[in-house]
Amino acid sequence: MSESEGYSAAAEVGAVRMRRSWRERAWIELKKAPFTAWLGLVIILAYIFVAIFAPWLAPYGEADAQFGAYEPWSAAHVFGTDQIGRDILSRLIYGARNTIGIALATTLLAFLIGGSLALLAAISRGWVDQVLSRAVDVLISIPSLIFALMLLSIYGSTTLSLIVIIAVLDSTRVFRLARAVAMNVVVMDYVEAARLRGEGLGWIMRREILPNIMPPLVAEFGLRFCFVFLTIAALSFLGVGIQPPTADWGSMVRENASLIQFAQFDIKAGITPLLPAAAIAILTIAVNFVVDWFLMKTSGLRDEH
Amino acid sequence: MSTEGNRAELLLAMRGVRIDGFADERWHEIIKGVDLTLHKGEVMGLIGESGAGKSTLGLAAMGFARPGCRISGGEIVFDGIDLMRASERQKQRLRGSRIAYVAQSAAAAFNPAHTLLDQTLEATVRHGLRSREEAERDARALYAAMDLPDPDTIGDRFPHQVSGGQLQRAMTAMAMASRPDLIIFDEPTTALDVTTQVNVLAAIRKAVKEFDTAAIYITHDLAVVAQMADRIKVLRYGEEVEEAPTGEMLSNPRHPYTRSLWAVRSIRKPGETSADRVLEIDRVTAAYGTVDVLHNISIGLPRGKTVALVGESGSGKSTAARVVTGLLPPRRGEVRFDGVALPADLKGRTKEQKRRIQMIYQMADTAMNPRQTVREIIGRPIAFYHGLRGREVERRVERLLEQIELDGSFADRLPGELSGGQKQRICIARALAAEPEVIICDEVTSALDQIVQEGILKLLMRLQKDHGLSYIFITHDIATVEAIADEVVVMLQGRVVEQGLKEEIFAPPHPEYTELLLSSVPEMEAGWLERAIARGEGGRVLDRLAEGDRERPSPR
Q: What is the pLDDT, as a whole number, of residue B550?
């Protein structure tokens, strides 16, 4: 042991192990994942599959109203038909595409707006931070569902305005989280080093800060997606969300709600309005399962049982 | 003093102690069978670099293992009581009455919501050793014994109302309150400035003697342990390297590893200067908010040389660096580079001006983006300043890695896969990649172990020779200054006390503060502390100088 003579800086930490590829690491993590996470992943993949291949999976068209109204469950119409004679199974399948697609687009937009403003606030600090944060405080203090209802009645319930309005309202939550985590990263010496080097705002945001705040943001993305999804369903249920003839689970619950009173005569008819509600609930729970697992993996948060 | 420990009464006997730690989902051995015997009234010094298992072993002397650790083998006998078999209740009764523990950070160990006195009393009154009145009287006597100012009233203060050094002494007083047979000091002065450290060391020393307490003193600073301990045990990778009485260990270390702990002190270069100043800080006054932290300072950096800024924390060393880099525009005065005034604010400077001044940080951990590979970290300044792309960047990264004595295989690693010294080398390479003329080194070695420090300092000196670099070297470690500096600037409270060639600054006579700073640096010989105290430097003269300044409420 004659370290003082044969000292070499390179030998201090042992040989480099090969870096595993992204895929290999993901697979190793997945193998250790609990049952609930697996269940959640499988359900989400199934939903995505249905959403993408809806036209091939659905037995009838989305707005095909050529059948009799309120037909019971049968071989031709697995879940019967609705009040103007559209096949409910087909609308459920198309609903996956519309509801998930719109919710995803809205969540992405919310993260784009909230995330970039948050990074801007965290890096600039001073008055930029003050103005943005206070503006967000104001927006957040208004109950979002009522605010969304109001804005939708002003701008009309088009899909585009639905996406933009919910995205802006939800971006306030994203802003708060992203700003809080970015603040912890901004004070690091490597951010100062980048600034001293003369790097622009864009580089510091994208390359120095963003990669270091990804885990909480990814988890928030999953949860935010659920909230957006529920908000859209709620607005559709109230009639200002996704408009007919576009199929969507929220409005399907509303349209078929009255069927529930026939449960005493035909149990299947009573179940029909619960089908789209169940579709909403199952996806929400599945996403939560996956997010829980991801959070546990990345932040060391554990249920203390 | 090394003979004092030879009294036969055995207090603590640890034999073949093994301790496991849980990491990466399996148990690793942290302590691999270490023996330790301690007699009554004896002070044992435990030294070793970080991760050597010093603290783990120290805690094991109380029969305690940190959460995530377990004592897996060996025996620990304290004054006839087998701690391995003792119940948790028995051990709890021992701790705080017969065994006490003094932690590194007194600020974190005190409860901010209670006064010092209340916390000092707590253990003794709770264990029913004394009545409250008695305990209060005793606490005041202890405060006096620890050389705390106003021992009668200081106990009424809250932890944030006294200085760091005083808090550490109060903590020791608290440990002494139950007159334990054994106190475990875990790096009690590591977080303190040298000038404060002397006071605390002297006070601990005095109290341990006065009450004839045995102690285990854990530190990584050989010079400190030389003042405190009767015997020294060197640990490395959880194993004992060697153990010897202090005097013997200092004069004749047997193991090469022990010898390497002296290493940094063996580098020394003569100070040189040149009239050609690459960088000049000219009558700069700078402030955070409305509080001036730099008062009209002027510092010159000769081309190709090293200027060391020394002073205790809060003296404005790092603030001066922020002014030079443009992060903190000064209120008055200017910084000149090659005779041309630099724009005060970073935003006003050109890319070229930014390129020529680079910075290396104290904590290499936080100075590198943990999500970027070494290639990205070093490659970025090359691409950014010199506009190179692809293969050309690749080649330069490889060459830089060679210059810092690492090889191309490191390019794919993330910072988390490097040791502390390697990280600091990557930071040096990043600064070098810009091809700067001036590098500001902010305490670059203070977070590293001695042997790694030596490597980094040698590297910096070689690079200086090869590239004609000029360094501003910020440090509070006088040994490092002696090793690397050409000129020295002594700072105190935002003012320059003295500046000049290293030899001139270190040769007497000194201004009062320089004297204090120099005499406070522990020397690697037994008895230095006694002499320092005898000269009156360890006592109240120091208190007046060092504490008087620090007692003022901080501006924040």
A: 42
Cα B449 from chain centroid? 10
In a domain, A16, yes or no: no
**C-beta atoms of B422 and A4 within 8 A:** no
From residue B63, give the alpha-carbon distance in Å to each of A282, B181, B239: 52, 15, 19
Lowest mean pLDDT among B223-232, B468-477, B528-537: B528-537
Q: Is position A20 within any domain?
A: no
Residue A4 with chain B: CB contacts under 8 Å: 256-257, 259-260, 263, 451
Instruction: Look at chain A and report how many structural domains it folds into.
Output: 1
**Residue-wise pLDDT tens digits, B313-334:** 778 888 899 999 998 899 989 9
Which chain B residues are Cβ-neighbours of A1 within 8 angstroms? 255-257
ipTM attached to this prediction: 0.75
pTM: 0.75
Q: Where are the alpha helices (DSSP H) in B336-412?
A: 351-356, 364-367, 374-386, 390-403
Strand-pair category, B306-310 with B332-337 = unpaired
Whose tokens are 């990669």? That residue is A211
Q: Are B257 and A3 within 8 A, CB to CB?
A: yes
| Pair of tokens at residue B117 | 């006195």
* Residue pLDDT, tens place only, B120-129: 888 788 877 7
Peptide bond into B511 cis (omega under 30): no
Residue A15 included in any domain: no
How many angstroms separate the CA of residue A5 from the nearest CA in chain B? 9
> With contacts defined as CB-CB under 8 Å, which chain B residues touch A2?
256
Interface subset of B 373-392, CB within 8 angstroms of A: 380-381, 384-385
Q: Which residues contact B42 (CB under 8 A, 6 or more apart)?
A: B4, B5, B7, B11, B214, B215, B230, B231
Between chains, do A211 and B256 touch, taking CB under 8 Å as contact? no
Higher pLDDT, B271 or B330: B330
CATH number at residue A245: 1.10.3720.10
Kindly report, residue by residue over B248-259, the tens digit of the pLDDT: 887 777 888 877
Other CB atoms within 10 Å distance of the CB of residue A30: 12
Domains of chain B: residue spans and CATH: 43-65+87-262 (3.40.50.300), 277-523 (3.40.50.300)
Residue A194 placed within a domain: yes
pLDDT (mean) for B482-494? 88
Sign of the Cα pseudo-torsion (A7, A12, A17, A22, in order): negative
Of the candidates A193, A195, A197, the beta carbon closest to that of B367 is on A193
Over residues B527-531, the mean pLDDT reads: 73
Containing domain of residue A275, as a range? Answer: 54-299
- Rounded to a whole number of angstroms, the distance from the CA of B92 to the nearest CA of chain A is 26
10-residue mean pLDDT profile of chain A (305 residues): values are 47 54 77 87 93 87 77 79 84 88 93 94 90 94 90 89 93 94 89 90 90 88 89 86 83 83 80 88 92 77 46
A9 touches chain B (CB under 8 A): yes
A137 CA to chain B: closest CA distance, Å? 27
